[in-house]
């Protein structure tokens, strides 16, 4: 069975993790295909929001044990193997970083357990919704290793540092209610069905905004996270000049006055090097 499936409804894409029998643990087919799939959606310019959800009882149980037992990552006895290990970890990181690099916002619709690499994934999303029974856990510390695919780097930008240290050292769970109070999740819904419905509605609302303004806002927030206020202000002044689109502004104003749905142009498709001819 495929690790995930993607469907489209207009400008909204929905990626579902489809290994419910394994609580959507992320096997090598996921790691090989996920980054390219997200990048492919971005290249079209037609996707303006992406929802990620999981089938079955849990959102994601983390890294599938087969990733380790296959020998693709584990060997690190020689210098050459350690160099290959380093590159393998970078490849895993890059797969999830595709979510941050995508021009569209990504919404995680989480229910049940979201642990290990699953938490790495949702940490790279723009928005997170959770069911009342959802829980988040840095599982790696419980199996004798440190997390290395994004949680320890992204969570301190979202959660209080003391809470991240608690999760990283103790290996305990962050409940949905506490996650909402701390600002990690945007809302808590009764169950998985409600979470997905709310995420898709949020995605449709985003898709109804001017795509250039949305992608510019995502880029500005990401830049501000990693730079000083002064650097962020200078960056956004330059970026605004490059994205300034009077047509979108007039369209939005006229739609508001007429109470009609605005029709904005899609983003330009991205050209893959070597694909021109």
UniProtKB/TrEMBL annotation:
Transmembrane segments: none
Domain of life: Bacteria
Pathways involved: Lipid metabolism; fatty acid beta-oxidation
InterPro entries listed in its UniProt record: ClpP/crotonase-like_dom_sf (IPR029045), Ech1-like (IPR045002), Enoyl-CoA_hyd/isom_CS (IPR018376), Enoyl-CoA_hydra/iso (IPR001753), Enoyl-CoA_hydra_C (IPR014748)
This protein's UniProt keywords: Fatty acid metabolism, Isomerase, Lipid metabolism
Any one biological process term the GO annotation gives: fatty acid metabolic process
Protein name: Enoyl-CoA hydratase/isomerase family protein
